[in-house]
Write a structure and sequence with these properties.
Elements (H helix, E strand, L loop, with lengths): L2 E4 L6 E4 L4 E6 L2 H7 L4 E5 L5 E5 L4 E5 L4 E6 L5 E6 L2 E6 L13 E3 L34
Parallel strand pairs: 3-10
Antiparallel strand pairs: 1-2, 2-5, 3-4, 4-9, 6-7, 7-8, 8-9
Length: 142
């Protein structure tokens, strides 16, 4: 069964025909600003398993360093996915419908979290980036 998701206003939807992996929550200052929250919740997707289903013309992209960036809805502002060199790299878990059957396995850049955020006891956390599922770091973060 595919994983589906979309933006807050419903104009943009997507479908993923495969599992999500390497779910993480990033607490760095850049993610706090990009997601308007204390952290981002994000999981990597195989780009060949990802497809936009509606509203693709409403997508806007912001690219930062090294070709990494975010795509968001131009109508409601929902941050939908991360891109790397223009290709979908992963999705924001807050925009996924239902249970994507993936869990946030690590909290990263906790060393630069907001002073007002209190981390729950027992979560796996790293002051910077931590080990990644499946091997070396990808270029999406830092």
């Amino acid at each position: 069964m595919p994983i589906t998701g979309g933006c807050f206003c419903g104009a943009i939807t997507y479908e993923i025909n495969g599992p999500l992996h390497d779910a993480r929550s990033c607490h760095c200052s850049r993610c706090r600003k990009a997601f308007s929250a204390q952290a981002s919740a994000y999981a990597v997707v195989d780009p060949v398993q990802f497809a936009w289903r509606s509203g693709e013309a409403l997508l806007r992209a912001y690219e930062s360093q090294a070709g990494a960036g975010l795509m968001f809805c131009s109508q409601c502002g929902s941050t939908l996915c991360g891109i790397l060199n223009g290709i979908v790299h992963g999705v924001t878990l807050g925009c996924v419908d239902g249970d994507p059957e993936v869990a946030v396995a690590r909290h990263i850049y906790v060393g630069s979290k907001a002073a007002w955020e209190i981390m729950p006891a027992g979560v796996v956390q790293y002051d910077e980036d931590g080990p990644r599922e499946g091997g070396p770091q990808d270029a999406f973060e830092r």
